Amino acid sequence: MEKINVVAALAALAQDNRLDVFRLLVQAGPEGMPAGAVAEALDLAPNTLTFHFDRLRTAGLVSVRRDGRSMIYAAQFEKMNELLRFLTENCCGGAPCAPAAICKPSRKRAKVPA
Amino acid sequence: MEKINVVAALAALAQDNRLDVFRLLVQAGPEGMPAGAVAEALDLAPNTLTFHFDRLRTAGLVSVRRDGRSMIYAAQFEKMNELLRFLTENCCGGAPCAPAAICKPSRKRAKVPA
DNA sequence: TCCATATTTCAACGAATATGGAAATGATAG
DNA sequence: CTATCATTTCCATATTCGTTGAAATATGGA
Questions:
Q1: CA dist A24 to A20, A32, A80, B64, B82, Å?
Q2: Number of domains in chain B
Q3: Which residues does B contribute to its contact with A (CB < 8 Å)?
Q4: CATH of the domain at B42
Q5: Å between B45 CA and D8 C1'?
Q6: Is residue B94 part of a domain?
Q7: Between B21 and B104, whose confidence is greater?
Q8: How far is CA B65 from CA B23, B35, B49, B106, in A?
Q9: Mean pLDDT on A3-32
Q10: Would the pTM of this model clear 0.85, i.e. be above it?
Q11: How far apart are CA A27 and CA A1, in angstroms?
Q12: Which domain range does residue B36 map to?
């Protein structure tokens, strides 16, 4: 992962609402969830949410697909893992100190646990 | 780790120069290195560097101590691990998918490898 | 077609950020 | 004490960020 992309990913996560959004999507699993559901869960104005989604998407941390009138946003787990790999890369002076794949979500995850 | 601290840590790392500074300090190991050496290595103005050190320090990612006229900055590895733990915390829906201690630097690390 | 729903786009604003120059502070040597 | 070195503080500036309100776009249903 290029440093410029790392900075973009970190910047994308370095904001209260966006961190919440991303974590919610992570918990939602690879299926993702509609923008409206995120807006309701986090009590965010739809235009504000679009702004934040854009940043996460530009950083590659999130993907979108349309389903009817809804836009379904989903976390990009592989990107997240790349970021974590980069952060731990030079951690112990070149010695690999973290596993290659840090997070492997199961394909099905319907409900977010309370 | 509290979410507010996570945001602060991410924001601290989400900037080109600061990411360089932190990685340099990570490679320098727990001993740290003087501000001047960092300034020279990364070609940063001393006042600019102070600004960035402050952010890293406020985020808890870096510590300082005085040694003569030099200020020695050192990466805070435990804070880094806390951050990584937080990021992977809800990664797999509550299932722990990353080790507890991700990075364990050896105490001695004199030279940064090229 | 007309309407409601879901989301995005646009323009604007105050707040925070990154950097630069000049001056100030703290520590050591002579 | 004075001079010098290492770093910080202060002030100014241009840029970017997060949020809001209003209007626009896309989809599906009656």
A1: 6, 9, 14, 36, 20
A2: 1
A3: 3-4, 6-7, 10-11, 13-16, 19, 23, 26-27, 29, 77, 80, 84, 87-88, 90-94, 97-99, 102-106, 109, 113
A4: 1.10.10.10
A5: 12
A6: no
A7: B21
A8: 19, 11, 16, 20
A9: 97
A10: yes
A11: 24
A12: 3-76
